[in-house]
Amino acid sequence: MNRPVMAANWKMNNGPTTAREFMQTFLAQYPRQNDRTILFFPPTLSMAAVAAALGDRRDILLGVQNVHWADQGAFTGELSVGMVRDAGARVVLVGHSERRHVFGETLDQTALKCAAVERGGLTPMLCVGETLEQREAGRAADVVIEQLRAGFSMMTQLATKDVMVAYEPVWAIGTGHTATADDASRMHRVLRAELIALCGDRARTTPILYGGSVNAANAPELVAAREVDGLLVGGASVDVGSWLAVARA
Ligand code: PEP
Question: What share of the chain is helix, strand, coil (3-state, %, to 5)?
Fold first, then answer.
């Protein structure tokens, strides 16, 4: 099994001061571990605080929640891949369900963003997931395959460059409803097969994370599920106490 990736998506929580305090507590209680990778997606404004706190903790990665696909230009309020790389980001979330469903991010835009991330030498973590309506219509697998193909469609080095995928059913994000370990395994198997078709054998070890109302109680079973290579955690990652419990799962 791959070394699990435990990723914290703080969403629009934990500004610089809170982030500094969070990291101080977290690092004091979380010594270097070789059996898992921790990854933080703080708000962009808090990246400097997290990067400074991490210092030489190379076992913990820094990511960013969103980027624009252009390298530079007149895009008020946006950030390029070059800028977030300069600020210490190694991984970029693309296609998070809140970007797709709250901000209207399209399949084409996820493709442009993944291509920009590849061009900039960072790793995209493409999030895919079906709505409840799509699930009830029996379309869950078709939807995630479409999102996966579209998101990676403009990348040119899939056979050699690292990517990550997060399966996050929309009906499970921030709702308290979690997929069962079997549900997650089933969808991860679908995603793995498609990834191998897209990227070749390399994709056998591509991390596929599960996300959706993960907490300290359900994390151990989910992270142990077949084909689940880690967890992407929103709500339960914002508070340092609950994140410590999940990160240790
Ligand atoms: C997320 O934001 O990626 C997420 C899975 O949120 P939550 O854990 O709150 O459902």
Answer: 45, 15, 40
Q: Which domains does the chain have, with CATH numbers?
A: 5-247 (3.20.20.70)
> Is 168 near ligand 1, meaning CB less than 6 Å away?
yes
Q: Where are the alpha helices (H) located in the chain, listed in sequence order?
A: 16-29, 47-54, 81-86, 97-101, 107-119, 132-136, 140-151, 181-199, 219-224, 240-247
This prediction's pTM: 0.96
Query: Is the CB–ligand 1 distance for residue 235 below 6 Å?
Result: yes
Question: For residue range 220-247, what is the model confidence (pLDDT) as tens digits?
Answer: 999 999 999 999 999 999 999 999 999 9
Is the minimum distance from the CB of 212 to ligand 1 under 6 angstroms? yes
Q: Based on the number of CB atoms within 10 Å of its own CB, is 216 exposed (0-12), middle (13-18) or buried (19 or more)? A: middle
- Ligand 1 pocket test, pick from 11, 171, 238 with the greatest ligand atom count within 8 Å of Cβ, gives 11
C-alpha 163/C-alpha 5 separation (Å) is 13
Per-residue model confidence as pLDDT tens digits over 113-123: 999 999 999 99
Task: Return phi, psi of residue 11, to 5°.
Answer: 50, -140
